[in-house]
Amino acid sequence: MSDTPSNVDGDVEAPTVEAPVTGPGLSGDSVDRRRVHDMWVAGTEERDWIAGATDEGAQELLPDDMDPASPIQRGVAVVDDFVEEVPFDPEERQIMNMGPQHPSTHGVLRLQLELEGETIHRVKPIIGYLHTGMEKTGETLTYMQGATNVTRMDYLSPFFNELAYSLAVEELLGVELPPRADAIRVLLTELNRVASHLLWVATQGMDIGALSMMLYGWREREKILNFFEKTTGLRMNHNFIRPGGVAADLPDGWEEDVELVLDEVPKAVVEYEDLLNENPIFLDRTVGVGIITPDECDAYGVTGPIARAAGINWDLRKTAPYSGIDQYDFDVPVAEHGDVFDRYIVRIAEIGESLGIVRQVLEKMPSGDYRSEDRKVTPPPRQRIDESMEALIHHFKLFTEGFKVPAGDVYRAVEGPRGELGVYLVSKGGARPWRIHVRAPSFAAVQALPVMMTDSLVADIIATLASADPVLGDVDR
Amino acid sequence: MSGWEILIEAAVKVVLAFVFLLVIVLLLVWAERRVVAVMQNRIGPNRAGPFGILQTLADGMKLFFKESLTPRRAEFGIYIAAPVAALIPALLIFLVIPIGAPIVIGDREYTLQVTDLNVGILYVLAISSLAVYAITLAGWSSGSKYPLLGSVRASAQMISYEAALGLALVPVIMFAGTTSMAGIVAAQQGEILGFLGAWHVILFPSFVIFLIAGFAETNRAPFDLVEAEQEIVGGYHTEYSGFRFALFFLAEYINIFNIAALTVVLFLGGWGGPVFGPQILVWFLPVFWFLLKTFAIIFLFFWVRATLPRMRYDQLMAFGWKRLIPISLAWIMLSMVALGIRRFGLPWS
């Protein structure tokens, strides 16, 4: 014990000066070596005055030729024909930490920027400030409780989290859902997509300076949240879509509430388009900014509106339909340039398509039960508990011990507002999942940010970041 | 008039001007918050005093009692001097703005203007150029990165748009034949409807250029990238707090009023307007017209802020140098022609 190096007190020992100097073309006394020395020797006064110095060694921005991310950011490692060497004087650079406390980093994302004046040379997104270990927490919760947990991950699209999780559990269980449960799920998730996109329009507008857009977007989103509140009791973190169906039937008069949303949101969206579509400043700020190519989307696993704005016709609702969404008639909007403006166009069009789906659900909502009849996962009806001892015991067991899920592993994904939201679930046959992993669309979007941002200006950073629409709860989980 | 009387009159005017500006700023901040709130489906401050009109006073008091933090790496002397340096030019510009027609009491004439310099416009341009120093130095002396970016933006932006602002004024000077503010207002009186200057109508392009450059000079949306909170947090005043921040805030709103007032004086006939009724109305109607026009311009400032996104740095510079300045130069040429026609008639007549 005594002769082994100890990390018990949490101190990570700073590597020796020689350790990191392994990059190509570094002689022993080069400027780079000196810089590396400065970065790694923690706690000295000298170090404190270096522009980029932080206490987190692994989160440093390394010298250009030693940073494995540099060629990727220049596009070398991803797309061969996009190599553009910009003359760059290392003496003129400064390193700026944008975030985690910054007004428009959408939560607690930290971007380490290497600036020359206002031009971005390199970007390094640093995440983890909102990491709460939800995937690990999921291993200690029963399948019934799990929805409560996953709904908190992407807090702007809680229904999608619940849906992906429930689909995965149901696949392992082999439970068949009644059509009404599927229809309710589609109704709620598509309304949720509209709410999420409205919030996106709001924050995109705000981040490029059109402050009023923020309040307009939130105003319309509020109408949808009111319906959610009436249905589920909560405005977010609903825990409504559960393995085996949904928690309750839709409230009385839900048709009128949905009609209200269907009436008012399209009108508001037309107003947004009046305000933004031909606004020269909005066009200047968004057209040709933050471009990502389809190849780069593939390389980084970027899905959802960002990929569709780049021209990839990929929507899980069409390619891997879930909850019977393939019986509704809708289009997948695809743009071609992959810039911020195309993402705006795609999302605005998606609002319309989703509302179309909602209208179809409204018109042909099937009657019947809102959850599976399978008594293995569904608690008995309330009256049965009063009459039957067995029903009471069954109910008690279901909510204390939970239901057991056959061993196996499964991956089910849904098309969330931000892209492919998938849940990978491993069961060893108990009442709790052995392992949960969530494939977060925001995570892929954040790791592709450097590709979109390199060689732009500080103002473009903000526009691009907003257009990627990352939810840090989803990224860090 | 003896020397003492002149001195006392000047002293009274300076004090009144200062109080006037403070009251205007109180109203302006409140009005901006209420107007923008209505445009954004909000309510805005409505608690302190009637209609929340005292909200600014309450906020000012709060700032007054807040701690004024100084960053460790700040250049202390410059850091504390910058807010004062921002306020002084704002106050000085107001001195030459006539807010009403001269009041005649007995055989004495009192001008509603602290002083009527015969180089009024040049004085305004000179003083407003000083304002950029305050912002640049504030950003630089904070010893922090966002303020530094803000101050670099500010120096580039304000110097560029200063040029457009100055060029937009050249036709005005040519038409009025004077650089005195009172003279320019007098030159615009009484040709259409009794209060519009006939020839001044064709200065409309200059008016538009001046207004756009004015938005940029006061760092208002859509040119507010000096303090773009979504990008560089607070720009040059990120590191300022308490009373020092309040001084910047005060200077900013006085500048808005100044630019609006200058627009009215130079292009919209100043205090000119229909005057009627008893003597007291004859005295105060011009002030009313002046304030009405000024607040109309200020309302435009609010409206634009609630509508337009922010421009990007390079687009802003391109707009200033490639659009505004060439248009101003071309318009100077055209207005020379117009002036020639006005003086000598059409060439074929």
What descriptive keywords fit this protein?
heterodimer; A: 477 residues; mainly alpha; Cytochrome-c3 Hydrogenase, chain B; three-stranded antiparallel sheet; 20 helices; globular; disordered N terminus; B: 349 residues; two-stranded antiparallel ribbon; 11 helices; 3% strand
Characterise this structure:
The complex is a heterodimer of chains A (477) and B (349). Chain A has 477 residues and is mostly helical. Chain A has a single domain, classed as Orthogonal Bundle (Cytochrome-c3 Hydrogenase, chain B), CATH 1.10.645.10. Helix content of chain A is 45%, strand content 10%. Chain A has 20 helices and 8 strands. In chain A, the strands form 3 sheets. In chain A, strands 1-2-3 form a 3-stranded antiparallel beta sheet. A 3-stranded antiparallel beta sheet of chain A has the order 6-7-8. The two termini of chain A are 35 Å apart. Chain B has 349 residues and is mainly α. Chain B has one domain. Chain B contains 11 helices and 2 strands; from the N terminus they run αααββαααααααα. Chain B has a two-stranded antiparallel sheet with strand order 1-2. Chain B is globular. Chain B starts with a helix and ends in a 5-residue tail after the last helix. The model of chain B has no long low-confidence stretch (mean pLDDT 84). The interface between A and B is medium-sized, with 30 and 31 residues.
Q: Report the principal-axis shape of chain B.
A: globular
How many β-strand runs of chain B?
2
Strand content of chain B: under 5%
pLDDT < 50 stretches of chain B: none
The ordered string of helix (H) and strand (E) elements of chain B is: HHHEEHHHHHHHH
Number of helices of chain B: 11
Q: Strand order across the biggest sheet of chain B? A: 1-2
Secondary structural class of chain A:
mainly alpha
Whole-Å distance between the termini of chain A?
A: 35 Å
Structural class of chain B: mainly alpha
Sketch the major β-sheet of chain B.
2 strands, antiparallel
The fold-level CATH name of chain A is Cytochrome-c3 Hydrogenase, chain B
CATH superfamily of chain A: Cytochrome-c3 Hydrogenase, chain B
CATH class of chain A: Mainly Alpha
| Count of folded domains of chain A | 1
CATH-derived architecture of chain A: Orthogonal Bundle
Oligomer: heterodimer
* Poorly predicted regions of chain A: 1-58, 79-83
